[in-house]
Structure formats: structure tokens, C-alpha cells
Amino acid sequence: MTEELIQPKDAIQRLILIILGMIFLAIVMVVGWYLHQISDPYINDVLSRQGDISRGQAIFEINCAGCHGIDADGIVGPSLHRVQKHKSKLSLIQQVISGKTPPMPKFQPNPQEMADLLSYLEEL
User: Fold this and answer.
1) Least buried of 5, 25, 29, 58, by fewest C-beta within 10 Å?
2) At 111, which CATH number?
């Protein structure tokens, strides 16, 4: 009886297939999560509106400046300057309304106020 050894080439091919399968699964999960989020009526309503920067700034000063600073430079919360460079509108909405990042409280402004706040954040 001869015992077959796994050749290095076969092992590498199997490893590549496993890695590709994991990447595919991750992509499917992210796309599924994204599609679920954009089907949310609140998020769709927010994203369909034109925001007003000055109203967004007022909303920010009332609700966010206590932690992020009046100029959004960060105090307890991080600086929000250039936040749109590393967070999408969808991510920003989720961050604001979820309350999943302590000590940030859960906060759900009406859709127009959220659109205004997004416009302000995009200008930082």
C-alpha cells in the first residue's frame, strides 16, 4: 500500500481556493449588509434629500459639539474634519443613529435634519 503525499503545488492551490472562498464570502456578506441598509426607509429618505450646510451646522452645535468640539476638532469624541474621506454617507448615518459607539448616544434626527447634518460634515 502506497501512501500519497500532498505535493506543495497541491497544497498551495488548496490554500488559494480557501482564501478566494473566504474573500467571496466576505464580499457577499458586505454586499448583503449594504443592500439591507439602503432598503431602510429612513436611510433612503435621508439620502434622497438635499442638505443645508448652515442648518446642519446648527444641528451639530446643539447635538454634537459637546463631545466633538464647536469646530469639530474633537474633545471626548474624535475630530470630524475630513470624516467623509473615510466614512460613506451610509456609515455616517449608521454612526449617528445607532448609539453603538459609546459614549456616543443614540440620536435619530428627522430625515431632513440628518441630510443637513451630513452636508455640514461633508464640508469639514
Assistant:
1) 5
2) 1.10.760.10
